[in-house]
Design goal:
Blueprint lengths: L19 H31 E2 L3 H28 L8 H7 L10 E2 H27 L3 H25 L9
Organism: Pseudoalteromonas issachenkonii
GO molecular function, one term: DNA binding
Protein name: DNA starvation/stationary phase protection protein Dps
Length: about 170
Amino acid sequence: MSNNNESNKTTKFTAPGMSDESAQKTIATLDNRMVALIDLQLTLKHIHWNVVGPNFIGVHEMIDPQVDIVREMTDTIAERIATLGAVPVGTPKSIVDRRTWDEYSVGKGLVTEHLAALDKVYNGVNADHRKAIETLSELDPVSEDMITSQLADLEQFQWFIRAHLESSTGELQS
C-alpha cells in the first residue's frame, strides 16, 4: 500500500474552455455533494435494515429505489470530478473526515422515528444542493445542470418521506 496521499493526485488538464480556478472551485463543490450523497445512500440503507412497526413494509420497499438512484448520482458526480481533472476520493475514512454533519442517530426504530430523522437529513442535503447550484451557476453550467437534475429527484424523495409524516391538514408530524 502506498503512502502517497491519493487525494492530491490530479491530472494536468480540465474541461476545454474552463479556467483552472473555475475547475478547482467546481471540483470542491462537487466533492462536497459527493460526500453528502455517499453518506445519504448509506443512511438510507441503514434505515432500510432497521425500520420497524406499522407501515414497515411500505417504507422498507420505498427506501431501496432511493438508495439505487442516489448511488447513481454519486457515480455521476465522481465521474464529473474526474472529467475536470481531479481524483474522486470515496474511501470510508475520507468520507467521514470530509463530512460536516453529525452521524445519523436512530438505530432500530419505528417508521415515524426514522422518517422524521430522514426528513431532517433531506433538509440538509437538499438545501446544500441548492447552495451548490448557486455556486456552480457562476462556474460551470454542465455541473450546475447535473446538480439541478439531482435535486429534482432528491426533493421528490423527501416528498415521499413527508407524505408518511403529514397530517390531513398538511402539517408535518415529527
